[in-house]
Amino acid sequence: MPSDSTSIAPTRRISTGIAELDNVLGGGLTADRSYLLEGTPGSGKTTIALQFLLEGARAGERGLYITLSETAAELREVAQSHNWSLDQIELFELVNEEGLDPDSEQSILEPSEVELGETLSGVRECVDRIRPTRVVFDSLSEMRLLAQSSLRYRRQILALKQYFSTRNCTVLMLDDRSSDPGDLQLHSIAHGVITLEQTAQEYGSERRRLRVVKMRGVKYRGGFHDFAIETGGVSVFPRLVAAEHRREFSDTLLSTGVPHFDEMLGGGISPGTNTLLNGPSGVGKTTTAVRAGLTAIERGEKAAYYLFDEGVTTMLARSKAMGMDLQPHLDSGALQVFQIDPAELSPGEFASWIRRAVETDGVRFIAIDSLNAFLQAMPGEKYLLLQMHEMLSYLNQQGVVTMLVLGQHGIVGDIRSEIDLSYLSDTIVLFRYFEARGNVLKAISVAKSRTTQHQGSIREFRLTNTGVEIGEPLKDFEGVLTGLPNYRGETALMSAAPAAGDE
Hints:
Blueprint (H helix, E strand, L loop, with lengths): L12 E2 L4 H6 L4 E2 L3 E6 L5 H14 L4 E5 L4 H10 L7 E5 L3 H4 L15 H4 L1 H10 L3 E5 L1 H8 L2 H17 L3 E6 L9 H5 L2 E8 L7 E9 L8 E7 L2 E5 L21 H6 L9 E7 L4 H14 L3 E6 L4 H10 L5 H6 L2 E5 L7 H13 L3 E7 L1 H6 L7 H14 L3 E8 L18 E10 L2 E11 L8 E7 L2 E7 L3 E2 L7 E2 L16
Parallel strand pairs: 3-7, 3-8, 4-5, 4-6, 6-7, 12-16, 12-17, 13-14, 13-15, 15-16
Antiparallel strand pairs: 1-2, 8-9, 9-10, 10-11, 17-18, 18-19, 19-20, 21-22
Helix pairs in contact: 7-8, 14-16
């Protein structure tokens, strides 16, 4: 029995010219449809629109930029700032010097009584002459002002949409969101809507993010995605979803390079876990993380260290003084060290750096030093802890060993943290100062491990010119974690020689 249903040809998808935006859109834009790209002035609409047309030019498609808001010269200046050439793109100024002449008989600025067909005749003539595949219409805000009424404005937009659809054009319509925030006429008309936002921080550079509000017939990645405008165009940083990135990896415990530390951890560090190094300033957290990273490199893995507090030069010099020369590994590419200015970096961009290190560079060990600077330098960012949770989940599912450095207030006695990340951590290592026999000494203990049967002992901890040393359990001391212990036995302390400092 014959079927009454008719087969529908699969829709063709085209690239926006921004690979990460295509990823957010689930593969790009559906061809031959009209889309709304909205955002306040300076949010990046023009840059994205030009990349859209330039991508078409690379694919041999004709592109047309219809502008009411910017001149052709201004558009070329924008392109020049990104080292682009617009020679293959047609620029059409809908209102030029002739159109601004009050005596001109053909102008979009004629009285509103003029029929819609006459108003849009310039657009039709240009499109019919060039026959473009991709079109940018900039901007609908001017069209809204010229229409003088919401009814006439809606008719104009619908007419434009219908006209472009009959010419097999994929259209980006730009809008600066100057209308009433509750006016969603454009959203209902467009096949898809992408919203750009720009917010000023109390300190540091502005933050930009985008959201796909609507995309008919396409499964896209929802939520906000950070992006940045750089020389060369817009870079989008898709929101990280850890559940989409799973891989198989060995569960063999890995050494930290310090035998006694491995014993305390229950045999070593499990791949796919994160370890929180928690303690006051100068107690040895960074040196411990560096030692573990160097051990990972020595067993043939790649490592990345993200510095938010200390300078790279200082870290390298101090590590070398403790017998851990990192420069050869930097030169070979086995180690990457990044000194980060959080005021200039969005959480989404940082997450993209982490992904690139893991997926492109093959990094298997990552250290973030410190979480205090990372979290506190972005006070205006909402849900930063939730983003951190997603990033750590991603690293765990990739089998990466992650070490997190968290500084605490105080030296002895009441030690406090500004933030509580214990619930995010698979393993927690506590560092403490304590007083004994007229000296300020250091102690280390493992407070938590989700994957191993860790020891509960508290041991003396020292930094020397050969690296990290850990002594026997302090069995005859009580109150070491308070900083003011009582000595109740004959436990031999480690050498009283001056210890090296650390941050």
